[in-house]
Amino acid sequence: MGALVVAVLGVGAASYVVWHKSSQAGPSDALRDFAAAWSRGDDAAAGELTERPPAATAALKANRRGLDGAKVTVVPGPVEARGETARATMRVTWDVPGIGRYAYRTNAALAHREDGWRVVWQPTLVHPRLDEDSRLGTVRETARRGRILARDGRPIVTLRRVVRVGVERDKVRSPAATAAAMARVVDIDRRAYQQAIERAGPKQFVEAITLREADAAKLEPELDRIHGALAVEDRAPLAPTRGFARALLGTVEPATAEQLKKLGTRYAPGDSVGQWGLESAFERRLAGSPERRIVIRVKGAPARTLRRRRGRAGGDLKTTLDIPTQRAAEAALADKSIATALVAIQPSTGDVLAVANRPSDSSFDRALEGRYPPGSTFKVISTAALLRDGLDTNEIVACPRTRNVGGRVFRNFEGGAEGAVPFARDFAISCNTAFVSLASRLSPNALGRTAREYGLGRPVKLPLRTGATQVPPGADAVARAATMIGQDKILVTPLAMAGVAATVADGRWRAPRLVSSDPRRSGPPLPADEHAQLRKVMRSVVISGTGTALAGVPGEVAGKSGTAEFGPGDPPKTHAWFIALRDDLAVAVLVERGRSGGSVAAPIAANFFAGLGTPAQ
């Protein structure tokens, strides 16, 4: 019995202590507790310390949300009490995401009630300019995106009219049916779009795809039959046509959640960002920075700016691309659906004038990144190495149909066999057996050393990813014979082979450039006789060899075909190549699985030059 009494007395004593402490707390304590709760992000606890907890809690949360979840630090000043009331000031400092520190002073009133001192709730407690119909908020205005410019300063990518196609969520009865219908009309992932519709708010526009104005017009009848479909006119940064250097330039589309996480606070949901290519590589420069403002919102609408953090317009990016040359490249590839690439370079500068890829809807830039055996286009390097070894192009080098080296039989693909002919003729008809027979004249490292002076095996510094080229020495006599005709383990890119043609055109390898402000780099000049002989034999390819598809092209065109074997098949599959030069222009064409360079790639090169018209005299 005594123990029970003690326990009860103990509880009563504890309750008395708590009540006594609360009743004895002054207005300074009450304001300090309110400031501490608000500062640590516990808006509900802060609201409970006011005389109107529900209203205070709702307002404190709404203002914090309005400032994008900002952290606040509240420092109460001295409290002046007068009987049952008290007054004080508070220093309020918000750390607003993307804007930074925003500080001000506000007035606080306190009143003594039956349960102790309470903070008098009023909107001015949060900010002196607020009332019951307003709250703090932010406004973010995206900067004008910079343009991608051609070498002459004309814009390649600029704002053009587009149509954003989607649905109004509140008009969609079945997300699954609507997503399926939309997927039948435009190229989207049906399931992903269905999920986007299901997650959307009741009044939200759920975008499916952004189309060029002309493309959207063609689909209008089909879109009209989709319940809830809506087309919203807008402007977006685009190239002249959908396929125009698309893999190189990239696209600008709404950022994914993963991209937003990587990009940081400068970006917000709904922002568009570069997805690949130059648009992605120079995202920060092109995007600029948004203007951000802290505002007072009255019934949701911005009414007064309290603080402004000015943005920065996106900077333009001047490239080395030439619009007429790029148009000619796109026209030469036309609507090919097979994997094809064309690169054009200005030999005197190394400037990349055009980069075209097919299929045009792929983001893979095979012109820069694709690595392939060069096949007989590598005979330009083999010939250069042989010339350095003392070969005379008039020397008779037999061209039989086959030649056995170490048990491997090499055959001619293009040009057949012509027997005992000068080496210059072997080059023109791309005689594999002739080149294979000369492999023993060169040291194992001769081809690699020579190739570096034409850009192969050198690192390429571009703002975009490029494939590494390699010319390793052959491990044995069979491998060294294969390297003479661009096989074995040699790998190149279309960009690199355009550089080989450019080196022959100018007499010196120059590093490729894509951005006009990048520095120029070059290798040593070629030996004068080597340079002259290569131009001569490459010209013979067009006049009477495997490149006669270019014979009718205006100007003095020189080139070299290539048919590169790959894979284990018997016979192996082949890629088609052609490299060419005319005046201060060099080009490489690759057609994956294109069989013959002379019959498949050479006509594309011819169409490219024809599209540029007659060269200036």
Measured distance between first and last alpha carbons: 120 Å
**What is the overall pLDDT average?**
91
CATH level-3 fold name of the largest domain: Beta-lactamase
Sheet bearing the most strands, described? 5 strands, antiparallel
* Number of E-state strands: 26
Q: Structural class of the helix and strand makeup?
A: alpha+beta
Plain-language structure description:
The chain is of the alpha+beta class and 617 residues long. The chain contains 21 helices and 26 strands. Strands 1, 2, 3, 4 and 5 form a five-stranded antiparallel sheet that branches. Strands 7, 8, 9, 10 and 15 form a five-stranded mixed sheet that branches. It has a five-stranded antiparallel sheet with strand order 17-16-26-25-24, with helices on both faces. A hairpin with a 2-residue loop joins strand 4 and strand 5.
Task: Give the key terms.
five-stranded antiparallel sheet, 21 helices, alpha+beta, Nuclear Transport Factor 2, Chain: A, 617 residues
Topology:
Elements: H1 2-24, H2 27-39, H3 43-48, H4 53-66, E1 71-76, E2 80-82, E3 85-96, E4 100-113, E5 116-119, E6 134-141, E7 148-149, E8 155-168, H5 175-185, H6 190-199, E9 205-212, H7 213-224, E10 229-238, H8 246-249, E11 252-254, H9 257-263, E12 272-274, H10 277-281, H11 283-287, E13 291-298, E14 301-309, E15 317-318, H12 323-333, E16 340-346, E17 351-358, H13 366-369, H14 379-388, E18 396-399, E19 402-405, E20 408-411, E21 419-422, H15 423-428, H16 432-437, H17 446-452, H18 477-483, H19 494-506, E22 508-510, E23 522-525, H20 528-544, E24 558-566, E25 573-582, E26 585-591, H21 597-612
Parallel strand pairs: 7-15
Antiparallel strand pairs: 1-3, 2-3, 3-4, 4-5, 6-13, 7-8, 8-9, 8-10, 11-12, 13-14, 16-17, 16-26, 18-21, 19-20, 22-23, 24-25, 25-26
Helix pairs in contact: 5-6, 12-21, 14-17, 14-20
